[in-house]
Amino acid sequence: MNDDVRNIVLGVVAAGISAALGWVARTYLWKRKLRRKQQFFGLPDNSESLLVVNRGAAGPEFAVMRFDVFALLELAALIKDCNAHAQILPHDTARQGFGERTEFCVGGPASNRRMAAHLDSLLPGVRVNVDSEPGPDRGAFQVGTERYRVDHGKEEYALLARLTADRSRNTRPVFLFCGQTSITNQATTRYLARNHERLTRKYGTGSFILLLKVINSQAYGPDVVELVEDVTRAAQTAPPAAAAPVPRNTHRAS
């Protein structure tokens, strides 16, 4: 074997080794990224999850608003990327605890009983105005002492939460997408899909509650979303109980 042939053989071997090392490195990084995503969403391979959907205010019994359908599609893509499966349940048939399966709950408490139950038990510092009568506070959020009103099509708010039950031995979280309108529900799921890696770096597999603002949805749809603030502490802190009135002493001394 002359020098030219030897150099060609060595070059081919070196290229093969480099390609193999590159493939191994890419596979390792891809698998690590997938595992981080699965841990954040609580969705290991072939696991089951719940998509709890609200119902539209009008229409057939199982009518879902158009933007809520889009929200479900956003979540279904995330679940599929994690090699997991989803079961869709209407909000008033999801009668079970959480922790055994990851849950994605979509819709405000006015149209989603499951969401109302989660807010009541897990987020005592959050109040949502569900009055059916028109008024400036209809649909408003109150988080702690701050109130956030709806300005339809211009400024609308939503809560994005990842929560786990401290009393549960399981690690499967519940994700809440609680918007003031159906388009804000979709905006919240899209925000999670776009930012889950950043949220993983910041929160790991812990709980968080974020207040989001959807800007000018009548022009931009669900795409322009701002993070207002992390309201985890305020949302999980129950408001102080009102002091009971002191009864008057109406007894007269004789």
TrEMBL record:
Transmembrane feature ranges: 6-29
Record keywords: Membrane, Transmembrane, Transmembrane helix
Protein name, as recorded: Secreted protein
